[in-house]
Predict the 3D structure of the following.
Amino acid sequence: MITSGGLLLGKVVLITGASSGIGAAAAAVFAREGASVVLAARREDRLAALTAELTGKGFDAAYVVADVTRADDMREAVAFTVDRHGRLDGAFNNAGIGGDQTPLHEMQDDIYDSVIDTNVRGLWNCMRAEIAAMLASGGGAVVNNSSVGGLVAIPTAAPYVAAKHAVVGFTRAAADEYARQGIRVNCVAPGSTRSEITADWYGRNPGLEEAIHAITPQGRTAAPEEIAEAATWLLSDRASYVTGVVMPVDGGFVNR
């Protein structure tokens, strides 16, 4: 059913990696579109400040401190959401890290381990808990945050590219598995977007942002709200016949 008013009116949505960047932008956009939002991340000070900002504007927001690499944390985050609202309608699995930009043969094991643990095992932990809750209440929608690195190669970022391809794989597999049980699973693939990851990469690689702009048809870096808007639509009933999709939100980068 297509709702009147906001795209997410009346929905309960859990957001991981919600303390900054795309996750923080998503919290604001989802709330504006009518959702009750639960913010999850590791940094309580940022979560508390953002939650206070949203509730001060009259939105329904709460937070839970959680590390996606810990399965118990994600089970508890989902349980907190269900205890508070009675169900989980949507999840935006946004938490992720970039790691170093280093040639593959020079990449250290600790970088590989941290990137895969957060971006792949973290998603695994989130989806297991979220899907179980959605099955219990009759369905829902999941949006995972991959990257253009999940669709094409990015030089000197092999673990990140591998991890973001895995996000695409998890999305497609879960979409197929749960379609007839009322759960849709889709994925956004952002291009260059203002976030802590890109700020770190650009800060350590002078000229990289300009080089990416040069091969991006729109010629700019996205605002995090632009990624959140795409996730909003995928979570909404307007996308009721959309599942298993990987949506580039990249200014035309992968289509160049």
Observations:
- The CA atoms of residues 169 and 200 lie 27 Å apart.
